[in-house]
Amino acid sequence: MTQTTLDLTGLKCPLPALKTRKALKSVKPGDFLEVHCTDPLSVIDIPNLIRETGDKVEISERTEKRIVFLIEKAGAAAD
Fold first, then answer.
1. Is 37 a residue of the active site?
2. Which of 3, 9, 11, 13 is catalytic?
3. What pTM was computed for the model?
């Protein structure tokens, strides 16, 4: 199990979702992608993206200044 961190602080919609989608392509099933965002719309965009990809997401941190998502890449059977 590996965890990769993607720092998207300062980027505005739709870039956090687009860059998260691109980064997920290089994550292996069962591994994690931690995404750091500052765009308030990312709390809508990223979960919607993950619903489309079939992976799992949770918000591991949410403050006024940043949101951290922890995304688990789905197994090969779910792809």
1. no
2. 13
3. 0.91
